[in-house]
Amino acid sequence: MNGRFDHTKYNPFPPIDIKDRTWPDQVITKAPTWCSVDLRDGNQALIEPMSVVQKKKMFELLVEVGFKEIEVGFPAASQPDFDFVRSLIEEDKVPEDVTIQVLTQARPELIQRTFESLKGARRAILHLYNSTSVVQREKVFKTDKAGIVEIAVEGAKEVVRCAARQPETEWTFQYSPESFTGTEVDFAVEVCDGVNEIWQPTPDNPVIINLPATVEMATPNVYADQIELFGRLIKNRGSVIISLHTHNDRSCAVGAAELAVMAGAQRVEGTLLGNGERTGNMDIVIMAMNLYSQGIDPELDLHDMDRIVSVVRECTQIDVHPRQAWSGDLVFTAFSGSHQDAIKKCLDIYEEGTPWAIAYLPIDPRDIGRTYQDVIRVNSQSGKGGVAYVLSNKFGFEFPAGYK
């Protein structure tokens, strides 16, 4: 074995000490609040960031799909981000029922610049963050726990001060202990409680506490444990919206988000088709369609999947894998003869309006703009049933009884 491929230099992630976890018994029955971060986290992960034209096209798609909360940038980080936020406000591009969100580090000058970008906004979510994990504390910032709490609390105070100077905007405050998954849960609670002492949330005016898997470090059940434990320990839980932001380093971002919603989270951040840092953000299309396939309204309109894929591809310059769940070109396509035969037999007896139960097809492809003609395609592995289905349905050939 190659000496560089050495698993012994990695420590296993410690389990969360929660013996009476309840999330495994929960069932998701309602869509969470969705927040798209395509224009911020998604954009910063691109080799070539989106142009203003591409950003506007993406924003229009997100509105059309039905997002009510959209993170539109990190306006203090660059002039293009600042200008884009200003253009949305000045050109009145934000619909009445949509709230824009912007991100800022917990540094006074960046917070002030961020508020400048939002002047005149009807509603906005001010998203504040600082890093809290053991690695970040000890190796990046060389700051103890008290120092991390102070950064968060002073940032929260500056947010309140700046918001008071712009009373024309309806503010929602959001705080993220960045790298939450690498932070001791009790310390994450301590930091968030400190922020909330400044922001003074109420049930009628809650804060959003966003708990990101900035790097996915463990199995989805561990993240769910972290979320459930956090929800038990945070003060004033009824005035806190717990939000998720999972990354896909272990390819489990969707699973982690689903289990964390079972653990009590109410809101999910992600991107269309999963674009994002490293292996990507949580793919909102996948999670929303997973709900849809269980008879749950995803509260997003994904009926024209090909158009969604086309716009995202155009704006990000990133292709979608043909087998990517729900959105890929080939996700409903069968080449295997036995699969084709089973699909054909089920479709032959399916009655419109009855519950969907077709072999190998988890949903009706027509629901997202695909056709049955796309489902059965012929190659060297296809049996005569598949050939007959294509010839009959695509070209109108009729076969004698017994052939099919």
Features:
single chain; 404 residues; alpha/beta; TIM Barrel; 13 helices; 13% strand
Give a quick account of the main beta sheet: strands, pairing sense, barrel closure. 8 strands, parallel, barrel
CATH 4th-level superfamily of the largest domain? Aldolase class I
* DSSP summary: helix tally: 13
- Proportion of beta-strand residues: 5-15%
| Gyration radius, in Å | 24 Å
Order of strands in the sheet with most strands: 1-2-3-4-5-6-7-8
Q: Report, as a whole number of angstroms, the end-to-end distance.
A: 53 Å
What can you see in these coordinates?
The protein is α/β, with parallel strands linked by helices and about 400 residues long. It has 13 helices and 8 strands. The protein has helices at about 40-45, 50-65, 80-90, 110-115, 135-140, 145-165, 185-200, 220-235, 255-260, 285-290, 305-315, 335-350, 385-395; strands at about 35, 70-75, 100-105, 125-130, 170-180, 205-215, 240-245, 265-270.
What are the SSEs and their pairings?
Layout: E1 33-36, H1 38-44, H2 52-65, E2 69-73, H3 79-90, E3 99-105, H4 108-117, E4 123-131, H5 134-140, H6 145-164, E5 170-178, H7 185-199, E6 207-213, H8 220-233, E7 240-246, H9 253-262, E8 267-270, H10 284-292, H11 305-316, H12 337-349, H13 384-395
Parallel strand pairs: 1-2, 1-8, 2-3, 3-4, 4-5, 5-6, 6-7, 7-8
What's the quick description here?
This protein is α/β, with parallel strands linked by helices and 404 residues long. It has helices at 38-44, 52-65, 79-90, 108-117, 134-140, 145-164, 185-199, 220-233, 253-262, 284-292, 305-316, 337-349, 384-395; strands at residues 33-36, 69-73, 99-105, 123-131, 170-178, 207-213, 240-246, 267-270.
